[in-house]
Design brief:
Elements lengths: L9 H13 L2 H20 L3 H9 L4 H31 L1 H18 L6 H29 L2 H9 L3 H21 L3 H19 L20
Helix pairs in contact: 2-6, 2-8, 2-9, 3-4, 4-5, 4-6, 5-6, 5-9
Length: about 220
């Protein structure tokens, strides 16, 4: 909760919050990273069933193969995010974010080349985990690097890049697939992941708005 709570008409407060959030370069960079990762995922995800069909054919095993690849990837991705937060508390959120981006890029590039359903499922699990970890690290960085007076508004708007990417991503994926086939969106998405990793790794971290986890000192209650 900010120390000075803004008051006024709802629309003025809403547009003021958007201007304040998007006017911060550090926030724009993190929003861009989150947006491009979701864009890459939305480009390729609709074509995962096509990769499964290429491996197992159109027989009775197709539905269960799609469920294995896509369902397990989503479940494993969901359970990795808390573990990534624990690790980020200890070694830093930015290194974990870069590692997740590199892992997601590698998984996306490898998926069209997987020779068997199990291998494809493993790559999909890595990709799903990478997307979930990126989200967790972006939230963590925003919560620790954004000044307190803008933190609440920033976290309320963090899904804005996802809405935009959710519209643009499938359209871009369709355009790439029309030219390069079903594997094309995975190659393009992998390159987007790796470019995001390079952008984060080469950018100097912003000064934290509050104490980072590594600076916290435990105080005995007794």
């Amino acid at each position: 909760r900010p120390e000075v709570v803004p008051v006024g008409p709802v629309l003025r407060l809403a547009f003021g919050a958007v201007r304040g959030v998007l006017g911060d370069p550090a926030v724009r960079r993190l929003f861009a990273v989150y947006g491009v990762v979701f864009l890459a995922n939305q480009m390729s995800r609709p074509y995962t069933p096509v990769l499964v069909e290429d491996l197992v054919g159109t027989g009775p095993g197709l539905a269960s193969g799609i469920a294995l690849v896509m369902g397990v990837a989503s479940l494993v991705g969901a359970v990795t995010a808390p573990g990534a937060g624990w690790l980020g508390d200890r070694i830093g959120f930015r290194p974990v974010l870069v590692t997740a981006l590199v892992g997601g890029g590698a998984a996306s590039l490898l998926m069209p080349a997987m020779p068997a359903l199990g291998a494809l499922a493993g790559a999909a699990v890595l990709l799903g985990a990478a997307v979930a970890i990126v989200g967790a690290m972006v939230f963590s960085l925003l919560a620790t690097e954004v000044p307190a007076e803008r933190r609440s508004a920033t976290l309320n708007l963090v899904y804005l890049p996802l809405y935009v990417a959710g519209i643009v991503g499938p359209a871009m994926g369709g355009a790439v697939a029309a030219v390069a086939g079903a594997g094309g969106p995975f190659i393009a998405g992998g390159l987007v992941f790796l470019l995001g990793a390079a952008a984060v790794a080469l950018r100097r971290p912003a000064r934290p708005a509050g104490a980072e986890a590594s600076d916290r000192v435990a105080v005995p209650l007794d």
